[in-house]
């Protein structure tokens, strides 16, 4: 399988509004086969669907409510159940086009959670979206900042069998609990400057996918990340694992197809 799958990116971000055509074209030239476009809030759902229709067979939509929500003008807070009110009808409307529910999860970074009730709100939002994913037979595309263990435990409690944990910042030993549950972990280009190197050492290649999280988590801080940087993740994994770049490409793409079977229609060997 010659090519990469970016299992988690924000191609709908305003950072790409001026040159999204060029970014997509460059991605294809760099060997990408597909991008999974994840959402953070209901306000961008229609934009993601439009991008997936405009770049049909290359951009695949994932809709979900992120554990951190923007409050205009420039504040952020933890997600609450009412954030799902606008999201659920749109998820229902486009359920046949979705490849995953995401980006969902928990974020217990202290500036977003000041009390146990804040954490509980996030849990309730994740539980409801886990239920929706099971009802629709879709995997979850999961965020878990400062909440690795609680996230994996909640997914297991909810009987989630198909999940991608993106840019996991928890301990490798906690990640291995996710591996036992059959979960996958996606690695962004920021691995070259992060603690995730320890994680990749321990994770079996059969549980690793690639992501860019564009426009965030690029190889350089404060520089817009793009899907073309997926190769940086793959090269770094191949160095850490002591296997060829071709092997990393092949295995991570097969992993993506196992987790997101709707990609198979677009990606033929």
Automatic annotation (TrEMBL):
Q: Which residues bind a divalent metal cation 1?
A: 8, 10, 103, 213
Keyword presence, Iron-sulfur = no
> What SUPFAM superfamilies does this protein map onto?
Metallo-dependent hydrolases (SSF51556)
Keyword Metal-binding in annotation: yes
Query: Which residues hold a divalent metal cation 2?
Result: 143, 166
Query: A GO molecular function for this record?
Result: metal ion binding
Alphabetized, the UniProt keywords read:
Hydrolase, Metal-binding
Q: State the source organism's domain of life.
A: Eukaryota
Question: Hey, which family's this protein in?
Answer: Belongs to the metallo-dependent hydrolases superfamily. TatD-type hydrolase family.
What's its job?
Exhibits 3'-exonuclease activities and apurinic/apyrimidinic (AP) endonuclease (in vitro). Show preferential AP endonuclease activity on double-stranded DNA substrates and 3'- exonuclease activity on single-stranded DNA.
Name of the molecule in the record: TatD DNase domain containing 3
Origin species: Kryptolebias marmoratus
